[in-house]
Amino acid sequence: MDFKRLTLFAGHYGSGKTNIALNYAVWLREKGLSVTMADLDIVNPYFRTKDSEEALNKLGIELICSPFANSNLDVPAMPKEIYALVDDHSQYGVLDIGGDDRGALALGRYAPEILSEGNYEMLFVINRSRPLTRTVDDTLSVMREIEAAGGVSFTAIVNNTNLGLATTAQDVLDSVSYARGVSEASGLPIKMTSVKQELMPELQEKIDDLFPLRLQELYYQIKTEK
């Protein structure tokens, strides 16, 4: 699977983009690349890359996120280190963009530099199981809102249709026609279909370009256990 220096993941709330971004950063690191992950999601306080910071650091992946992440404050303040990541062409970066148009506004600050370099992918994470993206038309509407707010057009699609821990292989198979419909209507290729690792044996001969995921621990579970 090909990759660019900067990989941006965006999608509707609950699409699973954060978990995919985390796994993708690890995948790049396993290739021996110097990787930094940046959390631009300043809207959704529930599923954060901050929850995985310790695990990322152990793998040698730096995490850049708002100083207010995982606190009772959440304001649109972005660390200056993100500008350094965008400008440093020797560093690979994975950016988790906020869901919907409001969340994607933060991307607009960095869009001119990202577009100028041209070494990026903007991946649209879709999940047919979410209420507001169950049809192709509704999904395309979300896509256009994010593009308009962030100032960067999507380059490919990630099919991440899932029901969390309850996801079955059949759930993923049933989503294939939906993902193809979004691809055909948008003109964007499907870069990969992401599935939890346990489902790989059942699906690897049936779906192309599978990307295995380890599911991020849920925010409320982490808080309960601490």
Largest beta-sheet characterization: 8 strands, parallel
Q: Numbering strands along the chain, what is their spatial order in the largest sheet?
A: 3-2-4-1-5-6-7-8
The counted number of beta strands is: 8
| CATH homologous superfamily designation | P-loop containing nucleotide triphosphate hydrolases
- N/C terminus separation: 38 Å
Low-confidence stretches: 68-75, 218-226
Percent of residues in helices comes to 25-40%
Rg result? 16 Å
- Average predicted confidence as pLDDT: 87
CATH architecture: 3-Layer(aba) Sandwich
| Structure annotation, total helices | 10
* Coarse shape: globular
Structural class: alpha/beta
SSE series:
EHEHEHEHHEHEHHEHEH
- At the first level of CATH, the class is Alpha Beta
Number of domains: 1
- The CATH topology turns out to be Rossmann fold
Residue fraction in strands: 15-25%
Task: Lay out the secondary structure.
Elements: E1 6-11, H1 17-30, E2 35-39, H2 53-58, E3 62-64, H3 81-87, E4 92-96, H4 100-104, H5 111-117, E5 120-126, H6 136-150, E6 156-159, H7 169-174, H8 176-186, E7 190-196, H9 200-203, E8 210-213, H10 219-225
Parallel strand pairs: 1-4, 1-5, 2-3, 2-4, 5-6, 6-7, 7-8
